[in-house]
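A quick aside before the break. I want you to see a complete sequence-to-structure record at least once, exactly as it would be stored in a machine-readable document. Don't worry about memorizing anything.
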Amino acid sequence: MTKVLELIQATKKINNGINETKVIMNEVNLTINQGEFVTVLGGNGAGKSTLFNSIAGSLTLTSGTVKLMGETVTNWNEEKRAKYLARVFQDPKMGTAPRMTVAENLLLAEKRGEKRKIKLRELKEKKTLYHEICSQVGNGLEKHLDTPTGDLSGGQRQALSLLMATLKKPDLLLLDEHTAALDPKTSKQLMALTDSRIKQEQLTCLMITHRMEDALHYGNRLIVLQKGKIVKDLDKQAKEKLTLADLLLFFEEEEE
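That is the input. The structure line, written in C-alpha cells, reads:
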C-alpha cells in the first residue's frame, strides 16, 4: 500500500510571550495511505490548522519529519510541495484569481506544480472540456466560463476552487473547512460534489470539518485532534459505528 503522507514525531512550538513556549502540535505521528478519505475533527485550538499548514509547507516544524510519496519534504517550501498537494481553503476568495475568468483559472490549475506561462490561445480548445467539468457542479458554473471569478457567488467560487484542486489529480487533497463559509444548502451541494470528485478520481484526501454530520457521513477514516495531539484514529469499521452523540462526547471529554 502506497504511503502518501507520513508525519513522524511532528512538533511545532511557538514563543508565547517572554520566555514562554507553547506547543501547538505535539509529536504527531500520522500515516495516510493511497485512497483514504480522512475527516479531521477538533475544537478551537486543537491543532487542525497547524496540522494542515505543516503538511502544506506554510509552517515549518520545530522538529520531526514530513514525507510525501516517500520523499522527505520537511524543509521544502509551499511552492515546491505543490507538485504533490492541492488545497481548498475556508475562504472562497483564497483558491482563485478574481480578475481571471473561470476558464483562465481552470487553465492555471492544469499547470499546478509546473513552471508555467499562461497561454490564452489554449483556451478555445479547452472550453468544451471545461464546460463539461463545470456542468457536473449543478449551480450554473458552466454558463460563466468567460466571467471573472470575482463576480461569482461564494458557492460557485468554492466549487471552482474544488474543481481546480482536483483537475490535475493531486497525490493529496487538503480540504480546509471548505464548506464553512457557505449556507447549509450550498454546503450540502458542495459536499456532494466533493464526495463525487474524490470517488471519481480515486483521490487521497484529508478534510477538516466543523460539521459533525459531514464527519460521520463522508470519508473512510476519522481522526480527532485535541491540544495538538491525535486522540482518536478510527478506521472505516469503527467510524461506521459512531453516532452524533459519540462525537459530541469526544468534545465533552476535551473540556474536562
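Two observations worth writing down. The mean pLDDT is 90. Strands lie at 3-15, 21-33, 37-42, 63-68, 71-72, 85-88, 172-176, 205-208, 221-226, 229-234. We'll return to this after the break.
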